[in-house]
Amino acid sequence: MNFDTARWQARLDELRTAHRVPGASLAVLSGGDVHELACGVLHRGTGVAVTTDSVFLSGSLAKVYTATLVMQLVDSGELELDAPVVSVLPEFGTPDEAATKTITIRQLLSHTGGLTCDFQYDSGRGDDCLAKYVEAARQVPLDCPPGTALSYSSVGYAVLGRVIEVLTGQTWDQALKDRLFTPLGLEHSMTLPEEALRFRVAMGHLGEPGADPEPAPAWDLMPRSAGPYGRVIVSAGDVARFAQMHLNGGTSPDGTRVLSAGTVAAMRRREVDSPDKWTVAADAWGLGWTLYDWDGIAGFGHDGSAVAQHSYLRVVPEAGVAIVLLANGGDFGRLYADLFRELLDELAGVRMPPPFAPPANPPVVDMTQLAGTYKREGVAITITQNGDGGARVRYEFVDGLKDLSPPLEADLVPVSPTVFAASGGPFGENHVPVVFSTLTNGTRCVYISMRATPKIT
């Protein structure tokens, strides 16, 4: 199928304008070719236009780059997936010494190691930043026992970044450049802000729904140690070319082998089901990749967010299609949903599910077993029953994160006996999934933003 660039360019700009997104860049891999489109502005204050070679902060999309580096080391025999992390990185630790000894590389890649996500620590700008981060993280409690649940973890990917450094003798930044960016010819991909200044760089924008957003007060608030889990700076076209390597069985356009075909396949093999199938639209997790099942059509990809810049990657192997969207604010979620629904349908025959929302006639759910307090490091979640049979959620930052934000409270609307929509209050017109599940050790937990939070009372 020929890709109609002019039609999709017009549709991209139409949807971008409707959803008040200042600027967006789109890349579509179809028929073996990468098609690149752009519209809007990088910064509403300067009016500089987005071009196809503009770069954006991609947030957690960085995790699949880190996972790819880890799998290169598995390919070479320098690393074993089921090896305990401490066998490679003796300085790795958690407050639970027994659990520390069991956490494996595979568990970190698949977010099943129990490590938390929201550990805020600036270990400086030096080449030792990841070593210092891993040392500081030794004091951070686990969200849940290793192997008992999927719980999205940025800390785990920082640890993987340090594993890469130890085994390659390079910084994570340099390893990524030498082992992925250069062999794949990704000339608009980098990790450090000073490298991004060579290019047209997007600025994030913030604002209230229904109004044009304004430039954020800072371009990037993340420390250098966030790189392996949160900072790869990229153009949409470069992300599509990275995905193309995975579609091509691990080879670059010139035939250079970056990964073995078996390793590429292993990365998108289901490791763990996702109880929360809505926050990042993931049905399951592989080794780095989020996995999708669109009525029997398999896909993989990842999402990312960083200071109001957002990234989306969806890949459909059977169709040879990859779609990348980078955006810098506004109602980016609706831009993604509208645009990808149309593109995936036309190019790959994929029917995306409707956006998450409560049904018109919500079921009646007995909250007796669900009400209570749930806690993980930095976050306490309280579920209460109302006198009229309804329920509310209170999401509060505690411990070292207590000054991050005031508590968030909202009504809970049942979707099913274990899935609820947090609506109203700080969430406005959006519906945030609140998913109740059980760890494999029998402890109840609740998921908000893909983090498993065990029940304590």
- Quote the average pLDDT: 95
Main sheet attributes: strand count, strand direction, barrel closure = 8 strands, antiparallel
- Provide the CATH architecture of the largest domain: 3-Layer(aba) Sandwich
Total beta strands = 21
CATH fold-level topology of the largest domain: Beta-lactamase
Sheet/helix structural class: alpha+beta
Number of helical regions? 13
Strand order of the largest sheet: 2-1-13-12-11-10-9-8
CATH superfamily of the largest domain: DD-peptidase/beta-lactamase superfamily
Q: Outline, from the CA principal axes?
A: globular
Termini Cα gap: 57 Å
Poorly predicted spans: none
| Beta fraction | 15-25%
Q: How many discrete domains? A: 2
Explain this structure.
It is a single chain. With 457 residues, this protein is of the alpha+beta class. It folds into 2 domains: 1-355, Beta-lactamase (3-Layer(aba) Sandwich), CATH 3.40.710.10; 372-454, Lipocalin. The chain has 13 helices and 21 strands. The chain has helices at residues 5-18, 62-75, 85-88, 97-100, 105-109, 129-137, 154-168, 172-181, 193-196, 227-230, 236-247, 261-267, 332-348, and strands at 23-30, 33-40, 56-57, 189-190, 205-206, 214-215, 233-234, 272-273, 284-285, 290-294, 297-306, 309-316, 321-327, 372-376, 379-385, 391-397, 408-414, 419-423, 431-438, 444-448, 451-454. The strands form 4 sheets. Strands 2-1-13-12-11-10-9-8 form an 8-stranded antiparallel sheet, with helices on both faces. The chain has an 8-stranded antiparallel sheet with strand order 14-15-16-17-18-19-20-21, with no helix packed on it. The protein starts with a helix and ends with a strand. The model has no long low-confidence stretch (mean pLDDT 95).
